[in-house]
Amino acid sequence: MSETAFDDYLAQWRGANPRRMVAWLFLRSNERACFGALAALEHEWLKVLREAREPQVAAARLGWWREEMQRAPQGQARHPLTQGLFATVRANAVPAMCWTAPVDAAIVLLATPSPADFAAQRTAVIPLADALAELETRAWFGEAVASPRAAKVTLLAHLAANLRGLESAAERGRTPLPMNLLARHGLTIDALGNDSPARRAAVRDCAAELRRDMADAARMQGPLTVFRVVELQHDLDTLGLAAKADEPLAALRSTASGLRGLLKTWRAARTWRSMAPTESSS
Fold this sequence. Notes:
With 282 residues, this protein is an all-alpha fold. The chain has helices spanning 3-15, 18-24, 29-51, 55-71, 80-85, 89-93, 96-110, 118-141, 148-164, 166-171, 179-184, 197-219, 226-242, 248-252, 258-275.
């Protein structure tokens, strides 16, 4: 493995989001190698799901990742991220099936039609969210902790990220908004590619719905990774702003966090350390 290539992947993932940069400060070097690589790996999977224009191409790329996640626990990793990740003790302690389950769920989601309503939208994403939540919980907390809160937060974070990428999804003939919401505002999927009063109203409605569910998830009990806590707080803030803003997508895409964000990250790191295994040499 090229150490530079591994570090480059981590730097790209970290540099794409200022909140990740702050969270990074509260992790030790060995934790960064495992948790950072895991988060960057998940980003690679979800990027295929969100950005590929041809479903067949996306399925082939995810198929490659599935094979990689079968090989990596056996010491046969080929990608710099998996090579670096599986050099850590924590990653090797996670059951092999946990590494392939998220990729399998992503492949299924590729073929899922646009959801009819919010309930159908959430149902479609549940397998992916559950698989990611279990993988993260096992890696960060070292055991099979039941994680309904982590699963719900992961699901809603995925839907919020999809909403932020609305125009890109529309270009690929997809919609992050349920079809009944489009109908309510007289929109088509093609129309989502252009700004309009109707699109803004639909985005506000969707943001308000996600914000309500996100607030419920925030009040639940259960372990969350530091990265998830930081993103949860950011999603709560930006979804709340978007639900009321004249320019809801701009509000949703805001990256500002400031001192308040730093304090929240510090508290999240303290909470995680109080729950995490005492072993820290992985």
